[in-house]
Specification:
The protein is an alpha/beta fold and 333 residues long. The chain is built from eleven helices and 16 strands. α6 runs parallel beside α7 and α7 runs parallel beside α9.
Length: 333
């Protein structure tokens, strides 16, 4: 377990969680988030926030985080975007450490959404409250039996050595199910960052670098706010743990799509490619390769050199593998 004094420790190991937008309707995200924590066996305090309910799933409800009697480490926000900034302001007033904003409709949605995102940041200015998101499924930590996702999880999630830092909800959603049922390597942490209006991949990467549960780090990013700092941290972390990165927005069409997905401004792809080579990050071409490489590093030690052997049930397979080895700068033993 990471050292308790790390600034992000309570994001992944919260003692208490508030679900703002908790619902009695089993089909709504706010109900699923409460149910997920109960089904996973989360042992911390759970505070559903709903001014129109007395209890949800057997838990007492509160009209506001300001009415909660105890401290709150993480608040999960799943309400319409226009209502988010004042709620974030209440969280900051309460002293909530982390606010995970699941809601969409911010910078990725246009000028009005960008205004709401700026108002949300203004609400935590000068406080110790940090924002994760918005527009995300958020956090998953199987060891702590904690998650913020609105995708139904039926029980404890298999623990493993791979952590994901991503700008997509897939890894706390449908791809999580695929990994657990088809890939079998297990999860250490998932950090879905969404629009990255505050917390970004550099801080999470640094945290995972000293997380004892994490042996492999896989990243999906659409834009980078501080390239030099990312390279510095990646060089340090990559000495002990493989970092596999999938970056989208390689074309003009992809750049436009990234802007409407997470509001990310995508830089030149050749610059990012060169940065990866300089700091030792391994670049994947698609989600399949990202998962394959993460699985390989999770189940095998890193190779000591470029020499390898090829075995196949078909001669054609050996020929194709030999070609690919040469193209990738490897040597056949």
């Amino acid at each position: 377990m990471p050292r308790a004094e790390h600034p992000l420790h309570r994001l992944f190991y919260p003692r208490s969680v508030a679900i703002i937008g908790a619902s009695r309707n089993p089909r709504k995200f706010g109900h699923i988030q409460v149910a997920n924590l109960l089904r996973m066996g989360y042992e911390g305090r759970i505070y559903p926030i709903n001014p129109r309910a007395d209890e949800i799933s057997g838990l007492r409800c509160y009209p506001s985080v300001l009415e909660v009697p105890g401290e709150i480490d993480v608040a999960i926000v799943t309400i319409p975007a226009p209502k988010v900034p004042p709620v974030v302001e209440e969280c900051a007033e309460k002293g909530v450490r982390f606010v995970v904003v699941i809601s969409s409709g911010f910078r990725e949605a246009g000028p009005e959404g960008e205004r709401l995102q700026e108002a949300m940041l203004k609400a935590v200015e000068g406080t110790e409250t940090r924002i994760v998101g918005p527009n995300t499924t958020g956090i998953l930590n199987p060891e702590a039996r904690f998650t913020t996702t609105f995708m139904p999880i039926e029980g404890p999630v298999r623990e493993g050595p791979v952590s994901f830092v991503v700008q997509t909800g897939l890894f706390a959603g449908i791809l999580l199910i695929h990994i657990l049922t088809a890939e079998h390597f297990g999860i250490a942490k998932v950090a879905g960052l969404g629009n990255k209006c505050d917390l970004d991949e550099v801080e999470v990467l640094e945290y995972l670098g000293q997380d004892e549960r994490t042996r492999v780090i896989a990243m999906y990013i659409e834009g980078v706010k501080n390239g030099r700092e990312l390279m510095r941290v990646a060089k340090e972390v990559g000495l002990d743990k493989p970092i596999v990165v999938l970056k989208s927005g390689r074309t003009e069409a992809g750049t436009r799509a990234a802007l409407s997905h997470t509001g990310s401004v995508v830089g030149r792809d050749e610059v990012f490619d060169a940065a990866c080579r300089q700091c030792g990050m391994i670049r994947a071409r698609d989600f399949e390769e990202l998962i394959d490489l993460a699985k390989a590093f999770a189940m095998q030690p890193p190779p000591r050199g470029p020499r390898l052997g090829v075995a196949s049930y078909s001669g054609a397979g050996c020929v194709l593998a030999s070609d690919e080895c040469t193209l990738q700068g490897l040597e056949l033993a």
